[in-house]
Amino acid sequence: xxxxxxxxxxxxxxxxxxxxxxxxxxxxxxxxxxxxxxxxxxxxxxxxxxxxxxxxxxxxxxxxxxxxxxxxxxxxxxxxxxxxxxxxxxxxxxxxxxxxxxxxxxxxxxxxxxxxxxxxxxxxxxxxxxxxxxxxxxxxxxxxxxxxxxxxxxxxxxxxxxxxxxxxxxxxxxxxxxxxxxxxxxxxxxxxxxxxxxxxxxxxxxxxxxxxxxxxxxxxxxxxxxxxxxxxxxxxxxxxxxxxxxxxxxxxxxxxxxxxxxxxxxxxxxxxxxxxxxxxxxxxxxxxxxxxxxxxxxxxxxxxxxxxxxxxxxxxxxxxxxxxxxxxxxxxxxxxxxxxxxxxxxxxxxxxxxxx
Length: 356
Hints:
Layout: H1 30-35, E1 38-40, H2 43-49, E2 54-56, H3 66-88, E3 104-111, H4 122-127, E4 135-136, H5 154-172, H6 175-178, H7 184-187, H8 195-203, H9 213-216, E5 225-244, E6 247-262, E7 272-284, H10 286-291, E8 295-304, E9 346-347
Parallel strand pairs: 3-8, 3-9
Antiparallel strand pairs: 1-2, 4-5, 5-6, 6-7, 7-8
């Protein structure tokens, strides 16, 4: 007797594995039925309306899903926003930074009245000169009490003052620099845009107010003079102020007193004092503050005893103990005073010389 799934007579001959297996892969699920284009009327519908056995169903509308619509909408909004922003240019292009101002420099020789006083001991000269109370070396360049400005913090103001001090110390107190040697220690403190002017000043010195090495730093002609005492006496001030929202300015005004003797004669010759008053104006933008660099925009120097006949562009050629100048200039310029000289060559006031 056949099973419930087989015909009474059994499986027909030649049928592959039973009649049911032949259609096992065909599945008529609900979605398949609903998607059929033809639909059979019910028996009641066919009796009542004498309609055909089947009727054609309207095609299903295969619209986009909700997620797809949202994605298309977002893409459209983003694209439209990009076009709008490109047309409106809401972000202003940063203004080009103004070029850095080249250094303007003035070196005024001060001619002594008569012979340059001297003695064997530099300490004696210092004690009997206006520099008796000056500090020694970098101690004479103290940092002032600093306060933040409208657009710069305390640390930024301190950074500007510290960089200015470092420049002063390296350019006017370093024995290697003073004797006409190393200049790299000074160069690295300058803004990169001033390096061409600095290099040209040393490669081709010119008395044009722009390219004199003695405008950048203090150095004596090594063939004429040498330091008798490395402890240079210094006194002066540093002041910081905000120039605008992007610039700090520092003004340095210091007087330096050097003890010198003729070059190459050891301790046999007398020592004399050389006085130099130097006013420097520094400028700092935010990049300079971050990189520990400065823009030196003004260098104003009065120095003596010097002769107006000597060229002070490349080196300072001081008059030493017992020497006199052949010619002088306007009388009465005192580098210890706070006023500025107005002549390109002045006279060194007697009050500025040590009393020997």
